[in-house]
Amino acid sequence: MAQITHLSKAPITEALIDIRVNPVVEFSEEKFSYLKEILSTDYPEIEIRHMMQSEFQIFHSPSKVLTNSENLGVHGYFFKSKDKQNIAQFRKDGFTLNRLRPYSSWAVISDEAKNLWKIYSDVLSPDYVTRIAVRYINQMKLKLPVQSIEDFFMIKSIIPEGLPNQFSSFLHKVVLFDEETNIEANVIMNLEHIDNSTDSAVIFDIDVYKKVEFSPDAAEIWQIFEELRNMKNRIFFGYITEKTVKGFK
Predict the structure, then answer these.
(1) Residue 175: beta bridge partners?
(2) Which of 7, 151, 204, 223 maximizes the CB count within 10 A of its CB?
């Protein structure tokens, strides 16, 4: 376990701030036009996402497959910033801010999320918030083959004694629950080979969330985001060694 500290070369490839809501019934063209108008300066690129429903029927005699697809209408609008590093998702079931590499800081992206959430809430008027989350996806390169994963991560050896101890891929997944705060976390580590390279990459995906029932303007939302962020840091540094930390300072 490493000490929590600032990393000047943090391996973050994507950070998300997510707020789920009781689904908004109406997502009218008028509301979209208003969103487009107020976000056009900072988020000029727009992508409309539709929700599709598909049905499959399989018959054995005679053998055939019938499919039927139905467009259920607009599910949300994705607004991309000029530099394409921020994506603001305005969906029927919630709001998400995606920050792509390079990562700036928690203060910067949380302030941006607050501003965008205010717009989302004012325009779409959701009934209540059902889930809030932060998710950080990290990419950490290693040389293949790996002989001891314990040099880099606080994970016990995954290979039984008597077998070859070099490996080129592994998958670790666990769901954590904190009884004191009711915060949950999906933690996934996946070691994959990078094509045309002698390197491998550990994708370290930390999704920390809490199920809630708040009004859209509740101040508690942002207080809990700080708790989620602290838990994310505890998990990240709890999984890595000081040797790994040195590579990102």
Answers:
(1) 186
(2) 204
**CB-facing half-sphere around the CA of 233: CA atoms within 13 A:** 12
Mean pLDDT of the 175-201 span: 87
Domain ranges of the chain: 1-18+134-249
With tokens 């059902």, the residue in question is: 130
d(Cα 104, Cα 97) in Å, to the nearest integer?
14
Mean pLDDT value of segment 99-124: 95
To the question of pTM greater than 0.85 for the whole model, the response is yes
Q: Is 157 exposed, middle or buried (0-12, 13-18, 19+ CB in 10 A)?
A: exposed
CB atoms within 10 A of CB 133: 24
- Computed over its alpha carbons, how large is the radius of gyration of the chain? 22
3-class secondary structure for 219-233? CHHHHHHHHHHHHHH
Q: Given a cut of 80, is residue 236 above it in pLDDT?
A: yes
Burial tier of 60 (Cβ tally within 10 Å: 0-12, 13-18, 19+): exposed
Helix, strand, or coil here: 10?
coil
Q: Could you tell me what percent of the chain has a pLDDT over 70?
A: 85
Looking at the chain, list the stretches that DSSP marks H as alpha helix, in order from N- to C-terminal side: 29-39, 106-124, 220-239, 242-246
Rounded Cα distance between 17 and 109, Å, is 8
